[in-house]
Amino acid sequence: MANVLKRFNLVVVPWFRIKIIDPLVQILRRGTEPKQLAFSAALGTSLGLFPIVGIPVFFCGFAIAVLGSRCHAPTVMLANFAATPIELSLIIPFLRFGELISGGPHFPLTSDAFKKVLTGQASWEVLHSIFHALLGWLVAAPFIMTLLYILLVPCFTILVRKFSGGSSSPKAPLVSIEIPLKDV
């Protein structure tokens, strides 16, 4: 057990720091508005929980394109990236929630079911299970996003104040450069 913890500390902790913490600190140092960061993180996380692997990054890109300056693109993508392990762990709960909502048949998660999926014998059952997982996510996502936003606003308010040097206005320049204009 001690070996596992030692290996975890040598591999996972530095990876998490480099891939999640350092980019987050860079975002915070730029002094973006805390409410915009909270909205962007909630959006990226809730879209990142979409139960089909690989699709959330496209949804996040589309949301960034549609929302423009109302969201902070690096925060949306970072939250999407950080939500990936959670996405994988929530596929089955979304599936079961969708089955509950629709009253649909229970998709058996057995080794035989997996064999049927691989051999193509369970195509309609698989399509129904995908539909149920999507339905579960579709119903849960607005609640997840709202709850995350409510929880993240005070967190980002404190973090922006701590890392940005007191300025939380997105309009405040990082460096002031004066360029003399010549008369034409």
Automatic annotation (TrEMBL):
<protein>
    <submittedName>
        <fullName>Ubiquitin-protein ligase</fullName>
    </submittedName>
</protein>
<dbReference type="Pfam" id="PF09835">
    <property type="entry name" value="DUF2062"/>
</dbReference>
<feature type="transmembrane region" description="Helical">
    <location>
        <begin position="47"/>
        <end position="68"/>
    </location>
</feature>
<keyword id="KW-0436">Ligase</keyword>
<dbReference type="GO" id="GO:0016874">
    <property type="term" value="F:ligase activity"/>
</dbReference>
<keyword id="KW-0472">Membrane</keyword>
<feature type="transmembrane region" description="Helical">
    <location>
        <begin position="75"/>
        <end position="95"/>
    </location>
</feature>
<keyword id="KW-1133">Transmembrane helix</keyword>
<keyword id="KW-0812">Transmembrane</keyword>
<feature type="transmembrane region" description="Helical">
    <location>
        <begin position="134"/>
        <end position="160"/>
    </location>
</feature>
<dbReference type="InterPro" id="IPR018639">
    <property type="entry name" value="DUF2062"/>
</dbReference>
<feature type="domain" description="DUF2062">
    <location>
        <begin position="25"/>
        <end position="162"/>
    </location>
</feature>
